[in-house]
Design brief:
Keywords: Heme, Iron, Membrane, Metal-binding, Transmembrane, Transmembrane helix
Order of helices and strands: HHHHHHH
CATH topology of one domain: 3 helical TM bundles of succinate and fumarate reductases
Pathway: Carbohydrate metabolism; tricarboxylic acid cycle
Radius of gyration: 43 Å
Number of helices: 7
Subcellular location: Membrane
InterPro entries: SQR/QFR_C/D (IPR034804), Succ_DH_cyt_bsu_CS (IPR018495), Succ_DH_cytb556 (IPR014314), SuccDH_FuR_B_TM-su (IPR000701)
GO molecular function: electron transfer activity; metal ion binding
Largest sheet: none
Distance between the termini: 130 Å
Length: 179
C-alpha cells in the first residue's frame, strides 16, 4: 500500500516537477564537475630580469669582490704565470701560422730586421721583451715542480721561493736577450 501511495504522490504535478527539476540540477552539476573548463591562452615569455637588476630591485648590496683584498705576492705571481702561459701560446701560434702563410723563411725576416739598423740597446730591449715570458714561465714552472714534491709549502718558503723565482726570471731573460 505504501508503494501505491507514493506512486500516487509522484503523479501529483507539484511533486513530479520537483523531482524532475532535482534530476536536471543533479545532471548539470555532474556534467560541470566531470568536464573541466579549458581556457587556451597564447604562451607569453616571462619578463627577463638580469642578475644585477634583480639585486637592485631587492635592494641587495653589491659585493666588494676583489677590491677588499690586499694584493699579495702569491696571487700576483699566480696571475702573471697564467698570463705568461697565454703569451707563450700566442708566440707559438704566431710562429706556426707565420711558417705556413709567409712566403719566405726565417733567415729572410732576420735580414730585414738587421736592415733596419736598430741600435744594440733597442735590439736588446726587443729581445728581452720577447724572452721575459719564457724566462718567467720557466722559472715559475720549476717552482711549481718543487711544490709538487711537497717541499716549500709554508708561507715563509712560498714567499722566499717567489722572490728567488723573480731573480731567476731576470737571469734567464738577460741570458736569452744577450744571445
Amino acid at each position: 500500500m505504501a508503494f501505491y501511495c507514493c506512486g500516487r504522490l509522484i503523479n501529483n504535478s507539484l511533486l513530479s516537477k520537483l523531482s524532475k527539476s532535482r534530476l536536471t540540477i543533479g545532471k548539470a552539476y555532474a556534467q560541470s564537475a566531470a568536464v573541466p573548463k579549458i581556457i587556451i591562452k597564447k604562451y607569453e615569455l616571462p619578463e627577463s630580469e638580469n642578475f644585477d637588476a634583480r639585486n637592485a630591485r631587492l635592494q641587495r648590496p653589491l659585493s666588494p669582490h676583489l677590491s677588499i683584498y690586499k694584493k699579495q705576492l702569491t696571487s700576483i705571481l699566480s696571475i702573471t704565470h697564467r698570463i705568461s702561459g697565454i703569451m707563450l701560446s700566442g708566440y707559438i701560434t704566431a710562429l706556426g701560422v707565420g711558417a705556413l702563410v709567409l712566403p719566405n723563411d726565417v733567415a729572410h725576416y732576420i735580414t730585414m730586421i738587421e736592415g733596419l739598423n736598430l741600435s744594440p740597446a733597442t735590439l736588446f730591449l726587443l729581445k728581452a721583451a720577447l724572452a721575459a715570458p719564457i724566462g718567467y714561465h720557466t722559472a715559475n714552472g720549476i717552482r711549481h715542480l718543487y711544490w709538487d714534491m711537497a717541499k716549500g709549502l709554508t708561507i715563509r718558503e712560498v714567499y722566499s721561493t717567489g722572490y728567488a723565482m723573480l731573480a731567476g726570471t731576470v737571469a734567464i731573460t738577460f741570458f736569452l736577450a744577450a744571445l
